[in-house]
Amino acid sequence: MTKSLYKLSNRNLKNILTAVIVYLFSAPAYAQTESRNWNGKKCAVVLTYDDALNIHLDKVIPMLDSYQFKGTFYLIGSSPVVSERIPEWRAAAKTGHELGNHTLNHPCNGNLPGREFVTSETDLSKYTVARAVKETRITNSLLKAIDGKTERTFAYPCGDFTTNDTLYYNYLKNDFAAARGVSPGYLSMKGVDFSNVNSFFQNGSTAEQMIAQVEEAEKKSSFIVFLFHGVGGEHPLNIDLEEHRKLLEYLKKRKKDIWVATMVDVAKYIRENQNK
């Protein structure tokens, strides 16, 4: 009886020692694979909103504030929603939201399919490079008059990059921290192209779909930029306000692992850390 108990206790001891050894060797390996390169978190999320809509001031910014998140709002300089609501945009900027540059007149290439909304005055294919650059800088002057800031990011209207086969942003690189494009992609910090930062366009998306995109960014230790227009209406490209709220709710619950910040702050962070 004593002998069998002795054998049993020896076997248990060996099992315990094996478990301890496995833990000691596997725990450091796990810690090394868990990347927290994004301001101490696993990934970064940037929430961007295009075209300076009333709904952004009336619904989106209050909702973001309620979750203590800051967004990037790409304003069209000539929009009446800008000129008629300057005090509200100024107040949003003071609380940490970014006012980004979406040009003066939102020019798009009218020669492409589905561009019936483009007028002769807003047809990028008829612009000179000098005009595209000048109007963008005029918008920067307007935005500085609103928020007093000199650092901000740019967003290509309609995702169109060129006029007369020239990438006009080449002449604006020193004016911005980065330019947001419209092509999706999860990139490493070292792979970011500041002239065309990837983004995930949202139209009719559910919270479940958007959360899955965030989780993919986390899995890849990357970052994700969301591109919104209407949120609860006011634009043909739209997501439901409640789906937007559910996304924010998820991000709030995951705040220990997910860094939510403006485009300008994430762009500056990448620049400072991508060569480390």
Automatic annotation (TrEMBL):
Spans traversing the lipid bilayer: none
PROSITE patterns per UniProt: NODB (PS51677)
Annotated keywords: Signal
N-terminal signal peptide: 1-31
Domain NodB homology intervals: 43-261
Keyword match Cell division: no
Record protein name field: Chitooligosaccharide deacetylase
Organism: Flavobacterium limi
